[in-house]
Amino acid sequence: MENKQSSSPASFIDSTIVPGDVVLDLSSMTNQTIKLGGGLRQDCDVISAMKAGTLRFSKPNKYWIESSQKRYVPCVEDTVLGIVVDSKADNFLIDIKGPTLAFLPVLAFEGGTRRNIPKFELGTLLYLRVVKANFGMNPELSCTDASGKAAEFGPLKDGYMFETSTGLSRKLLSSPTCPVLEALGKKLSFEIAVGLNGRVWVNAASPDTVVVAANAIMNSESLSTAQQIIMVEHLLKNIQ
Amino acid sequence: MEGRLANAWRLTVNDKNFIKTALLSEIRIDGRKPFEYRKISIKFGREDGSSEVQLGQTRVMGIVTAQLVQPYRDRPKEGMLSIFTEFSPMADPSFEPGRPGELAVELGRIIDRGLRESRAVDTESLCILAGKFVWAVRIDIHILDNGGNLVDAANIAALAALLTFRRPECSLGGEDGQEVIVHPPEIREPLPLMVHHLPIAITFGFFSNESILLIDPTHNEEAVMNGRMTTTVNANGDICAIQKGGGEGVPQRVIMQCLQLATSKAASITKQIKDAVEAFNTERALRKIKRHPTSTGVDVREKQNQ
To answer: In this prediction, does ipTM exceed 0.85?
Structure first.
């Protein structure tokens, strides 16, 4: 432990860490503001890891841990896919695969007022943004972007939703485009919405396109780039 | 595993509609045809009489044990066969610990009916001493992961476990010839059960109005379908049991179609179970062979160690 504290924080970036690892020593970095993301916590003078994963750093001052798991831990500004479970007077209750249900205030829509509260059937699939994620509170969601516009948020029509790990959904959103999506996109046209909570929604004109795309994405998790492309080509050959 | 995390009540409206519309053009979400069965894999534990069956994402474990008990008064010459089910909440969040749910009871009953009423296991050969001692065979079914169609997977697990189970050999002795001697497995090779035929359960799902029929429904399809029917048939084409669930009415023509499909599937599943059991028996026999060191080189080294 002593060794780790003395080593420079830069050495931990992009490397694998386990819970309890001391990532940053605050006493050696005065006059700096840092922002902590998921999986990190402050213990007095040090920042330590709470879960296993890869430490990421984004300039100028953001640190977070990336890992792949089935359960989603809500984090502010994540875009997620949620399912309406219940509707109350002030909030919709949404399942986002988190430890607790999330609240979606009935006014958190573009131009939302008491008069035009939307009606959602139970089981409606929504594309949402996490606004608040505090300890001991249910997370709060919103159907607008930070400036109050609807952007692409809101209910998703038709299509098929399936569940993946959070790691895979992060890979699908990464840039440059994930090879499986790139390979599928060359031959098929489909619409996709990826939530960071490990839910993916696919829609296309014909059901067999949806089935092929969904299965290709689900199979791609443990494959390398080359393997993903071969797998997609193999699948596409079968349907033609 | 991931796919079925969506609990039945959390299945979205989109998914329900998609499953229905895709079925109209004979497409299923896992890329199967309506009458295609998922891949079955059968594994065995180190102990005799334990099996683990994987059917797609469904995983079921079957364990067979036996003990000597006094028979029922009205059937003094017959052994007993009983089935117990265990639905762990780990398999599916909707399974509650404690009291068995409706599904657990139904699953146990279907398998019990298939095995017992068709007299698949010869219970008379389980008798040691009429009216005093018979073997009571107990089948425990543990659901490890619910990916849909638990009945079929549990039935295969039960059969695979029964086929590999061996009971200790017994003989009568003592002064009056009324004393039962149970021979330990080291002294006399344990005996397998007498299983006459394998009743295979095949489950069908029905969807309303369009009269769509599919075989081996997954967890998501189970949440959408209106009715189901489990037919228990063996490879010879004998019908052992039929269980119909859900509200949907099924015309006679469809039942006959189901039975034909079931018979052909049962034949291929029977073959898979038999192949797996045979492979296990070969491995078991090989394990029993004691290998003596033959080469002198080994002896020298042993002496040096001493």
So the answer is: no
